[in-house]
From TrEMBL, chain A:
GO molecular function ontology, one term from the record: cytochrome-c oxidase activity
Organism of origin: Fodinibius halophilus
Protein name in UniProt: Cytochrome c oxidase subunit 1
Function: Cytochrome c oxidase is the component of the respiratory chain that catalyzes the reduction of oxygen to water. Subunits 1-3 form the functional core of the enzyme complex. CO I is the catalytic subunit of the enzyme. Electrons originating in cytochrome c are transferred via the copper A center of subunit 2 and heme A of subunit 1 to the bimetallic center formed by heme A3 and copper B.
Predominant localisation class: membrane
Transmembrane region(s): 49-69, 89-110, 131-149, 169-193, 214-238, 258-282, 294-315, 327-345, 365-390, 402-424, 436-457, 477-500
TrEMBL record, chain B:
Name recorded for this polypeptide: Cytochrome c oxidase subunit 2
One GO biological process term: ATP synthesis coupled electron transport
Family recorded in the similarity comment: Belongs to the cytochrome c oxidase subunit 2 family.
Organism annotation: Fodinibius halophilus
Higher taxonomy: Bacteria, Pseudomonadati, Balneolota, Balneolia, Balneolales
Gene behind the chain: coxB
Function summary: Subunits I and II form the functional core of the enzyme complex. Electrons originating in cytochrome c are transferred via heme a and Cu(A) to the binuclear center formed by heme a3 and Cu(B).
Keyword Nucleus annotated: no
Amino acid sequence: MDTAESSSTLNKIQVQRFKPDDNPDKHYLNEETGLWSWLTTVDHKKIGIMYLASITFFFFIGGLMALLVRTELWTPAKTFIEANTYNQLFTLHGAVMIFLFLVPSVPAALGNFILPLQLGAKDVAFPRLNLLSYYLYLAGSFIAVYAIFSGGIDTGWTFYTPYSSSTGGAVTTMTFGVFVIGFSSILTGVNFITTIHKMRAPGLTWDKLPLFCWGLYATSIIQILATPVLAITLALVAMERILGIGIFDPALGGDPVLYQHFFWFYSHPAVYIMIVPGFGVVSEIISTFSKKHIFGYWAIALSSLAIAFIGFLVWGHHMFVSGQATLASMVFSFLTFLVGIPTGIKMFNWTATLYKGSIKLASPLLYIFGFFFLFLVGGLTGIVLGSIALDVHLHDTYYVVAHFHFVMVGGMVMAFLAGLHYWWPKITGKMYNETMAKIACGIIFVGFNVTFLPQFVMGSQGMPRRYFNYIEQFQPFHQVSTIGSYILGLGFLMVFYYLVKSIYRGKQAPANPWGSRALEWQISAMPPLHNFHHTPVIINGPYDYHKPMEEFQLGLAESGNGHGHDVEVTKEGEDLSAE
Amino acid sequence: MDALNDLFLPPAKSTLASQTDTLFWFVHLSSLALTIGLIAVIVYFVYKYRRKSEDEVTPLITHNNKLEVTWSVIPLILVLIVFGWGYQVFMNQRVVPDDAYEVNVTAQKWIWQFQYENGARTTGELHVPAGRPIKLVMSSNDVIHSFFVPDYRLKQDVVPGRYTEMWFNAPDPGESIVYCTEYCGTDHSNMLANIIVHEQDDFENWLAENAGGASKPDDMPPAEWGKQIAQEYACSTCHSADGSQMVGPTWKGTFGSEEPLADGSTVTVDENYIRESILEPNAKVVEGYPAVMNTYQGQLNDEQINAIIEYIKTLK
């Protein structure tokens, strides 16, 4: 009876091994060429590359503004620009880096390229929607850039009312730009969630899903649920400015603190939009370069979701001194500490993954270790700021500036660079100069610490942020910080130089230069136009380094030519086992 | 420890500041220990388990429930301690003692004004007695500002349309700097004030001398008094007396001159124009300057406005 039943629920499918081609004649870049093929492409890989180019451009624009801000702070009074120019520069630095670089960086650029490859899919679920996301991002960016040239804005990236509803300049234009970019973010989220649910290859069950996909999944949930609130808030600001409807401005009968609630309801989860996909990158790279199964797969996967959900409930920790109720501050502080726990769990799990591994300190892993230290500092200073009494002292000082730069630049940008170095051979088919990559990583790490460690000290001493003039006792700290920022800038330029150079002069990359078991490395060096010539079949997890490489290169046998293995698969597509 | 304290934190000049400092060091030192520990483990692993050959096979270790529960629960306990501790100190900062001495604080771009029980008023200087709880009742005339006293480890946003409060007790006479820490525009970073803590007797004397506030000292010529008011009310933050370019037009040589306005017309700067500009700043804005000045209606009386006009007349 038992045998009869089980045989009725099992189908046998034939699979065969598909060895990746190290040097394919045709790949996604040379099958369709010309400018038009790029502008109208629905290929997730090309869209990913267009995102990559755009965010790189805006990263350097934002970086240039940062250097101007730091240069102005060399002396306590005016160094070379006016106070109003300075105020616009720090505003634009923040707005450009957050909305035009950080939010789309890992999900839209790397995620677009890698996600379908990791799922064994030919593309994302809605390729045209994906292209629309990119054009919305581009349109929003142009509107934002137009705002810069048509009066600029000086509100800080937070657009706090009633200052933002009363100041001059192009606040309405800028918020409209951010509004449009928000839609790009929402559409990407919808696309990724659908893709992860519906487009997984046969056998790719949820417990075999790469952790990068889990990271993107959690991120997409936040993007869909939080971004509309930002859009509504910015629309309300615009209505107040244009129509004079009193919502946030007390002069019109509004409540300025309400704005802060709305704004942080998006902007705190947005912090996780920026960092959670970075966590995914870290998991992939740690496992690959220590050739070892990731430690605590479910703990890492679920902690991303936990962060996504608890992250919605902590926005009030930006408002401990805003005048909100003492009780509210207490609840928000408590929840803030809870969100620290899943983050800590991840750090411990990654460390444990290294135990008894076979660790190769290649440049992607080096960037990850940079991430490790900087993110640890950023995270622990977040614990400091989550404690209400300490936040009362440190709020809106350079301590906060240093904290979120450690998280956003030290954590996120390092993770992004790690991912970029890791997947570069897959994206471009070329190897970069490994020595230069290691040196640049060192320069960035040193430059970053020289820039931001002094800011913790002067923040603790009371140096407020967004100050054009400051009292003389802070000058040594500011000068060290400014020197650090130049070193940091040099490091980023170096990365740009050797990566671009590798496209023209780099060595040909093999299909799987790191010996990874993950699916995106089991296809040709540069992926084919539609990613897979075969339908991949997954029988092992992406971190099963104890199993031989052959078992990771399986696909549905082409019309059963007799060379395949038999694989049993249940009707639900679960529980695969090789025979 | 004292040397560390001096490097990282400003001097502790209120009764509660040391509570914040103890927590500050508890969190930072335990974080430092954790950071060093974790980095040491990583460095050790990276060295010990470095790749010796490309064919190495690693053992399959998927998870370890005991270990994972341990490293979830211990940090949870630690952060709950930090939470409870931080909340307790915060409650001490929030609950104002009953016998606190009240001072009203008004913030506006880019000055701090203080009003005392007997009508005394100061700008940019807060005078308080030592060893007595002081309660500040604060509101803003325009945008959000924030009252930050690093020496007291205290900060509170000052919001238009509502009152916020904070309290402190400075045991010893001395001075402490006040920063505005909520970005409020061009001169945000110049929006400073000083807290001057007097002995109780000195404070009583100071208060008595300044009772009633806005009346002209007997033996002072109007122009000189006007100069004093211009400084107290921070007019000089935006209007220079020496012709240098600031946020607003300079006062040097302005009296009697013809100024082009933003709407294309011109105006002769006379007593009436200056008075109007003080009470209704946006009525006639000089071309090339932002319309950012706030009204001083209700803050300056006629006598004070006259004194400012006299002062401007002397700036040839």
